[in-house]
Amino acid sequence: MTKEVTTPYGVSLWKSIRILWNEFKVNTIVKVADGVKTVFWKDDWHEAGNMETLFLDIYNLVLHQQSTIAELWTPQRWNFVFRRHLNDWEIPRVAKFFSTIDQFSGLKAGQDILQRQGNSNGTFKVNAAYRKMNQPNQLLLRWPWKHI
């Protein structure tokens, strides 16, 4: 079992980054390649947003909620298994869902990559993150500026 870090030597910067992960993650998006590491419903991979948040009603209808994009994508397009038959009033919502994800062009060679939004090439830069998290309208006081 790992001990809690109490000194600034070694890994305290990474400890601070781990503590701030939720604040950092909202500014990232997953660039899908092979889809093996990207969870369809949980990860932010689509430009419209998180699928679970956008389509919570559809999320509750599907059987495999932890599936990756690679598991759900087939050469014939998406393959979702619903827990039950759809009711008439659910059909328009499912159609909207499929219309939203229809923009996905398919899997590619390579690995999925977590990219930071706002940078031209998607790379993480400490100074850009520092500026973003220390804007006057941000109430984030825990930024580890002393460790950088």
Observed structural traits:
single chain; 148 residues; alpha+beta; 2 domains; two-stranded antiparallel ribbon; two-stranded antiparallel sheet; 7 helices; 4 strands; elongated
Number of strands: 4
The amount of helix comes to 25-40%
Question: CA-to-CA gap between the ends?
Answer: 27 Å
Taking the sheet with the most strands, its summary is: 2 strands, antiparallel
What's the alpha carbon Rg, rounded to whole Å?
A: 19 Å
Give me the secondary-structure category: alpha+beta
In round numbers, the mean pLDDT is 79
Topology:
Elements: H1 12-19, H2 21-25, E1 28-31, H3 51-54, H4 56-61, H5 69-72, E2 73-74, E3 77-78, H6 91-101, E4 113-116, H7 126-133
Antiparallel strand pairs: 1-4, 2-3
